[in-house]
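Give me the fold.
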Amino acid sequence: MRRFGFVLLLVLAACTPAAPSRPATGGASRQSAAQAEATLAGVRRVDDLPLYEMTYLGDYDTAAPGPQPTAAAPFGCSLFAALGDPDRPVFGRNFDWDPNPALVLRTDPPDGYASISLVDLRYLGLSAADDPRGDRRLLDAPLLPFDGLNERGLAVGMAADEGASAVADPAKPTVGSVRILRLVLDQAATVDEALAVFARHNIDFTGGPPLHYLLADTSGASALVEYSDGRQQVERGTGRWQALTNVPLIGVGEPERRHDTRYRVLADTLGRTGGAVPQADAMSLLRAVAQPHTRWSVTYDLRTGQLRVVTAQRWQTVHSFRLTAS
């Protein structure tokens, strides 16, 4: 694994689909039999969301066929990148969606960066009633990070954007709207490199709500990626913070953006503090914009690789993880 260097990207952007059109079959795994067995044997139940934890051992194929998310209508998510304190940049995100089980996933591919991310297990065909321990469908989990942070300190997340549309360029490969997060976490050390990954690919929104994305890194760089009139558009952060909910932002003035209540709460707080938000306060900020269907709230410390998670708005219980398992 490469050394921590971290870049943030919180992205915590997004909500997306609901149930996969078909369950995964472990087709992404490029592990040895021993690695697959050890990966599944190490699955640990953390709480009764239920939330699980898994460290994926070995390699996986990011181009493998996988479950295609579907959704009748998007819910809402809230994300922010708080970069005002260069020693403690934080990325935060509420995932607001259906009551599905979730997974804290560590990966360390031989040809990419190690990362930690959160996965909605319903998209792998698993319900809250299922016990996934030993289930080979978990071997497809690397294909579906909903938010995450890699060892270089780059964070990324997504949120639903009903008005987004993307037109494919036949000269570029096409990837799913969630799969792109895996490519970013594996291949990009900075926001600039992450934007280059987006630029090299078409995004397929088939089956789920269209999305937009938030990126951030430890240098203080951040960016939004949106799709409007079929074209990819980018807005780089010009201050020490950026925020994202479920309204389009690029080309929209700040007064109009603040018509969205959750965006206004995030912008008011981050603007007042100059984007300097201690990780403990970051969770309080997520609480301020939580909705009745908030499934998980997560903060990523871009420099230390620490992840803190609250599930189902049980704010008194904060689960802590690190990018490298202890």
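Residues 295 and 312 are 5 Å apart (CA to CA).
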